[in-house]
Amino acid sequence: MPHGFVGDLQMDDALPFHQREWRVKRIAWGFFGLLLLVSLAGFLGSGPFSDATVQQDGLTVRYERYLRARRESELEITLRTAETGTVRLLVDQSLAERANIKSIVPAPKSVTANNGQLEHEFQSNAKETTIKIEFEPRKMGQLKVGLASPGSGKVQLQMWVHP
User: Fold this and answer.
1) 107/64 same-domain check
2) C-alpha closest to that of 79 among 143, 135, 122
3) Number of structural domains found in the chain
4) 41-55, pLDDT tens digit by residue?
5) Rounded to two decimals, what is the model's pTM?
6) Residue 102, number of CB atoms within 10 A of its CB
7) Range of 106's domain?
């Protein structure tokens, strides 16, 4: 390497090397800045782009599209019915197979397995019933869950589980 002088100091002149290093640093800072914005927006967990609501007839579901493995999440299901009494909610067994169900509030009166679905029966004294299912995904990947209620519609949820 050629030697140059800066004032009274003799230094190695490596300007091309430093320019490449600066370029790599600027690209890295841009990448990490973009990663920070993406995570704050909710693409890697909680945030405005992660929150979703789906509605079909009398069935409304609020959930997060982007989840973290081994971190609790919640499905908030609202059923609107014409009558009070018993309300039924059908949940694909894929939720129970791919996640740990922590709690269901209110507690169902009964749960039966039928054709790849779990049928939850709830007692309701109102024409609108809200059910919260807290769960914890076990592993990363895509998680598809179908929810239905006889007379209230059917929805298909698609969630992505990150490590």
Assistant:
1) yes
2) 122
3) 2
4) 666 666 777 788 999
5) 0.75
6) 12
7) 51-162
